[in-house]
C-alpha cells in the first residue's frame, strides 16, 4: 500500500481491465479507438509502476508494498502480493516495454486490431501478477495464464507456420509447469497446510526431497528461460510471431524462468541448488558457447536473434549458480539489459520486414544507402548485443564473468567466449544487411524510419546507453535482497 492505494493490485488489474475494454471496442470498426485506449492503458500502467521504484526502500531486504487477503480459505490460499529487489525491476521492465509494443503495432496490424492490442495489455497485467505473487497457487494461476495471450498472438497474427509454432510453445511450457504444481502440493503438505512462498523458504527439507523438488522446478523454469536442450520452441515461436510478439517474448516472458530460479529454486531448496550447481553451470556454458555457434550459421535474422537470446540467457543461469553477489546481481542486470537489447533487435528486424517482407539476410545488402537513420540505431543495438563497453550488454556479462573467475577460471574462460561469438554473429549479420552496394531493386525502394519508429528506437537506445554508463540505480535496489539470499544459501548444509 502507498497512500492507501494498493499499487501492486493496480499494476496487475489496471492493464487487464483496460485490455478488456479494448476488446469491447469490437473488431476493426473502432480500430483507432482501440489503439488509443491501449496506448493510454499501457502508459497509465507504467505511471502506476513508477512509485514502486520511487518509494522502494533499498536498505530493506524483505517484501514491500505487501497486500494480503483471504481467497480460498478452505485450502489456505491467499491473495498475497509483495515485491523485493528481485521482482520490482522486472515489473518496471514489463511496464516499460508494453507501451513500446503498442506503438510498434500502430500501423502494422490492420486486422483484429482491438484483439491484438488488448492481448498485450492483458498479458502485461498477468506477468506483473507472476512477479508479485507470494502465494504458490496465485503464482501458478498467473504463470499458466501468461501462456494464453502469447499463444493467441502467435497463432492469430503470426507467419505461415504460426499454428505449429503456437502449439509447440504452449505444450512445451505447459508440460514443464505441471511438475511445478506437484512440487507446490508436496510443499503444502510438509509445511502444515501453507501455500505461502515465504514459508517454504524456512522449511528444513532433507537433501533427497530437495533434489526432486529442484528437478520439478527446473523443468518449469528451464523451458521458460529457455536453457539448452529445451530451447527448440523459441526459434520457431520468434520466427512466426509478429514483431510485437517477438519483442514481448524475448524482453519479458523469458525472464519468468530466471525469476523462478531466484524466487523458488535457490531459497526453497538451497542444498539441492548447491549439490546440482555443477550441472546447472555446465548447461549454462553449453548455451553460451554452443548456441552462440548455432547463431553464427543462421540465414534468418529473427532466428539468429532468437538463438542469441538463448546464449545470453545462459549467462543469467550461470550467474545464479555461482552463489556470489557479482553473479546474481550480474545475472539480474543481464535480464533487464537483454529486455532492452533483444526487444530493440527484433524491432529493427520488424522495421525492415514491414518494408521488404523478408527476414533472410541474403535478401538485403546496402540498407545504409537507403535507411541511414535506421542504420545508426541498428548499429548501436548490434554493438550492445555483442557486449560493447558503454552499453547495457556489457555490464551484466562483465559482472558474471567476474563472478565466474572467483569460482573457477575455466567457467570464466568459456563464458567470455560469448564476447567473441556474439560479435561474430551479430556484426557479420549487420555487415551483410547494412553495408555494401544496394543489393536489389527491392532494397533500392526502401524508405527510412518514420517518426513513430524513431520514437521507439530512441527510447530503447536511451535505455541501453543509460544502463551501460550508469547501472547504479538498478543495482542498488538489488543489494539487500541478494545479500539476504546469499546469507540464506550460506546456511545450507552443503
What's this entry about, in short?
With about 500 residues, the chain is mainly alpha-helical. It is built from 23 helices and 2 strands.
Please give a handful of descriptors for the protein shown.
globular, 494 residues, 73% helix, single chain, two-stranded antiparallel sheet, mainly alpha, 23 helices
Low-confidence segments, given as residue ranges, are none
Number of helical stretches of at least 4 residues? 23
Secondary structure tally: strands? 2
User: How widely separated are the two ends?
Assistant: 39 Å
Kindly state the mean pLDDT as a whole number? 87
Pattern of helices and strands: HHEEHHHHHHHHHHHHHHHHHHHHH
Radius of gyration: 22 Å
Q: Order the strands across the largest sheet as they lie in space.
A: 1-2
Structural class: mainly alpha
What is the 3D form? globular
- The oligomeric state of the chains shown is single chain
Task: Characterise this structure.
The structure is a single chain. It is built from 23 helices and 2 strands. By secondary structure, it is mostly helical. Helices cover 73% and strands 3% of the residues. The mean pLDDT is 87. It has helices spanning 7-24, 31-54, 87-104, 113-132, 136-145, 147-157, 162-190, 197-200, 207-224, 233-240, 243-268, 270-275, 277-296, 301-320, 325-356, 367-370, 372-385, 392-407, 409-434, 441-444, 451-469, 472-475, 479-490; strands spanning 64-72, 77-83. A hairpin with a 4-residue loop joins strand 1 (64-72) and strand 2 (77-83). The chain has a two-stranded antiparallel sheet with strand order 1-2. Helix 7 (162-190) runs antiparallel to helix 9, helix 15 (325-356) packs antiparallel against helix 17 and helix 17 runs antiparallel to helix 19 (409-434). The longest helix has 32 residues, at 325-356. It is globular. The two termini are 39 Å apart.
Amino acid at each position: 500500500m502507498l497512500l492507501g492505494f494498493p499499487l501492486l493490485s493496480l499494476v496487475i488489474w489496471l492493464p487487464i481491465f483496460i485490455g478488456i475494454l479494448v476488446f469491447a471496442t469490437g473488431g476493426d470498426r473502432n480500430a483507432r479507438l482501440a489503439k488509443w485506449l491501449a496506448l493510454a492503458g499501457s502508459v497509465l500502467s507504467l505511471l502506476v509502476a513508477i512509485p514502486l521504484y520511487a518509494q522502494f526502500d533499498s536498505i530493506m531486504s524483505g517484501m514491500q508494498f505487501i497486500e494480503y487477503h483471504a481467497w480460498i480459505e478452505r485450502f489456505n490460499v491467499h491473495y498475497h502480493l509483495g515485491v523485493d529487489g528481485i521482482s520490482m525491476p522486472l515489473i518496471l521492465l514489463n511496464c516499460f516495454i508494453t507501451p513500446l509494443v503498442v506503438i510498434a503495432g500502430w500501423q502494422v496490424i490492420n486486422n483484429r486490431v482491438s484483439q491484438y492490442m488488448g492481448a498485450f495489455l492483458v498479458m502485461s497485467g498477468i506477468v506483473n501478477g507472476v512477479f508479485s505473487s507470494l502465494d504458490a497457487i496465485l503464482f501458478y494461476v498467473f504463470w499458466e495464464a501468461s501462456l494464453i495471450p502469447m499463444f493467441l498472438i502467435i497463432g492469430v497474427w503470426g507467419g505461415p507456420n504460426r499454428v505449429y509454432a503456437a502449439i509447440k510453445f504452449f505444450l512445451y511450457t505447459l508440460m514443464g509447469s505441471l511438475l511445478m504444481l506437484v512440487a507446490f502440493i508436496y510443499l503444502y503438505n510438509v509445511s502444515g497446510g501453507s501455500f505461502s512462498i515465504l514459508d517454504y523458504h524456512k522449511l528444513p527439507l532433507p537433501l533427497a526431497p530437495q533434489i526432486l523438488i529442484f528437478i520439478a522446478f527446473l523443468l518449469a523454469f528451464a523451458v521458460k528461460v529457455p536453457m539448452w536442450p529445451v530451447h527448440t520452441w523459441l526459434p520457431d515461436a520468434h520466427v512466426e510471431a509478429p514483431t510485437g510478439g517477438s519483442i514481448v517474448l524475448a524482453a519479458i516472458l523469458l525472464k519468468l524462468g530466471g525469476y523462478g530460479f531466484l524466487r523458488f529454486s535457490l531459497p526453497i531448496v538451497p542444498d539441492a541448488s548447491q549439490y546440482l550447481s555443477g550441472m546447472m553451470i555446465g548447461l549454462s556454458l553449453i548455451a553460451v558457447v554452443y548456441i552462440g555457434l548455432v547463431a553464427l550459421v543462421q540465414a534468418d535474422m529473427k532466428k539468429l536473434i532468437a538463438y542469441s537470446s538463448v546464449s545470453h540467457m545462459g549467462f543469467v543461469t550461470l550467474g545464479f549458480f555461482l552463489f556470489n553477489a557479482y553473479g546474481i546481481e550480474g545475472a539480474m542486470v543481464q535480464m533487464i539489459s537483454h529486455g532492452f537489447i533483444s526487444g530493440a533487435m527484433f524491432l529493427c528486424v520488424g522495421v525492415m520486414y514491414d518494408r521488404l517482407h523478408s527476414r533472410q539476410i541474403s535478401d538485403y545488402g546496402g540498407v545504409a544507402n537507403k535507411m541511414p537513420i535506421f542504420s545508426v540505431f541498428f548499429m548501436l543495438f548490434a554493438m550492445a548485443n555483442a557486449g560493447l563497453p558503454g552499453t547495457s550488454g556489457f555490464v551484466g556479462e562483465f559482472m558474471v564473468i567476474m563472478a565466474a573467475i572467483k569460482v573457477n577460471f575455466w567457467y570464466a574462460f568459456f563464458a567470455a567466449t560469448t564476447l567473441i561469438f556474439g560479435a561474430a554473429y551479430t556484426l557479420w549479420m549487420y555487415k551483410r544487411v547494412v553495408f555494401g552496394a544496394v543489393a536489389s531493386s527491392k532494397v533500392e525502394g526502401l524508405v527510412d524510419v518514420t517518426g513513430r519508429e524513431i520514437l521507439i528506437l530512441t527510447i530503447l537506445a536511451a535505455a541501453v546507453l543509460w544502463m551501460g554508463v550508469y547501472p547504479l540505480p538498478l543495482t542498488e535496489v538489488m543489494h539487500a535482497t541478494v545479500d539476504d539470499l546469499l546469507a540464506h544459501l550460506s546456511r545450507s548444509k552443503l
